[in-house]
Amino acid sequence: MDAKINKLQLRKARLAARDEIPVGDRIEKSLLMADLASEIIAFEPGEVISGFFPIKTEADIRPLMHRLKGRGARLCLPVVLDRHTIEFREIADGMPMVDTGFGTSGPGSAAPVLDPDVLLVPLSAFDATGHRIGYGAGYYDRAIAKLYAKGRSPRLIGIAFDCQQVETIPFEAHDVPLDAVLTESGLHMFQKDK
């Protein structure tokens, strides 16, 4: 129970710090992320990258996604199906976006469902070892577990601002560490234990 309480406190504090970033600074930092990472995120043309449209005070990675598409990525967005499940639907030119809940939009039910090779993961806090705290609903944890169960090993890149880093995240058995985190200071790679 202590880990859950600690995660709750860390989540609240780091989201409050993110909320304090003025809108103009958030835009500048988001554009800087695209500049820093658009050419160094590794993938093969045709691989699937899941991004997200920003909600609240999240980094806006749409410029980054646009550049990754220009390098040949197939893009998709997470869509909430129910209280426990998200699926990743392809973004296609001319396909309308629909309300997908939580203040965001995404491809409608006619869009192809894809298994991402790279997930750009929103988060509330991260540490220097690649552990992260999400928003508490567990959508990404379950989606990643489902991909692993299919024999997939997506690369996980957290998206955050520098102010969201903490010294240590309590690690639980179901937690999957990130391969990297992208902030306004760069793409920070982590060593995963084998």
Describe the structure.
Belongs to the 5-formyltetrahydrofolate cyclo-ligase family. It comes from Rhizobium setariae. Substrate binds at residue 58. The chain is an alpha/beta fold and 194 residues long. The chain has a single domain (2-186), classed as Rossmann fold (3-Layer(aba) Sandwich), CATH 3.40.50. The protein contains four helices and eleven strands, in the order H-H-E-H-E-E-E-E-E-E-E-H-E-E-E. It has helices at residues 2-19, 23-37, 62-70, 139-149; strands at residues 48-50, 74-80, 86-90, 97-101, 104-107, 118-122, 125-126, 132-133, 155-159, 180-183, 186-189. Strands 3-2-1-6-9-10-11 form a seven-stranded mixed beta sheet, with helices on both faces. A two-stranded antiparallel sheet has the order 4-5. The protein has a two-stranded antiparallel ribbon with strand order 7-8. The model has no long low-confidence stretch (mean pLDDT 92).
In short:
With 194 residues, the chain is an alpha/beta fold.
Strand content: 15-25%
Looking at the overall shape, the CATH architecture is 3-Layer(aba) Sandwich
Number of helices, where a helix is a run of at least 4 consecutive DSSP H or I residues: 4
Number of domains: 1
Q: How many strands appear in the DSSP assignment? A: 11
Order of helices and strands: HHEHEEEEEEEHEEE
Strand adjacency order, main sheet: 3-2-1-6-9-10-11
- Principal-axes geometry comes out as globular
Give the helix proportion (percent range): 25-40%
Give the integer mean of the pLDDT values: 92
Low-confidence blocks of residues: none
Query: What is the radius of gyration computed over CA atoms, rounded to a whole number of angstroms?
Result: 16 Å
The CATH class, by name, is Alpha Beta
EC number: 6.3.3.2
GO biological process, one term: tetrahydrofolate interconversion
Family: Belongs to the 5-formyltetrahydrofolate cyclo-ligase family.
Keywords: ATP-binding, Ligase, Magnesium, Metal-binding, Nucleotide-binding
